[in-house]
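Would you kindly consider the sequence and fold I have copied below?
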Amino acid sequence: MRTGKLVGRRGLVDLGCIVTPDTILRWYRQLVAAKYDGSKRRRPGRPRTVDRYHVLIVIDLASRRVEIGGIVHEPTGAWMKQAVRNLIDAEEGFLTGTTKLIMDRDPIFTADVRTLLRSGGVETVRLPASSVSA
């Protein structure tokens, strides 16, 4: 079979085999297809879905520093409030000394979250509804 691939169709005609060059090349294609056929390893049903995570990212525009506020499968109000508490922590919070935070209109930024930010001295500026989102 390797001879068929190395020699090529014209070389096979010159060799004068009992089978045609097309047959040898067809056999080779079938062997390759069988080798890389993954259908026997597949299970019935829908393929597994990829895990999806939500990531809270905070960027300091002046210094261009980036902080990951948290990563979670499904964000909740309680998770968001804890992430904000961590960000406005007086000793180690990323937003310490920050006066403004620009945020989109995602429902996860609840009134409680905005109130918590204000209590930490951070004014929230919400993007207009017509702004581009990812």
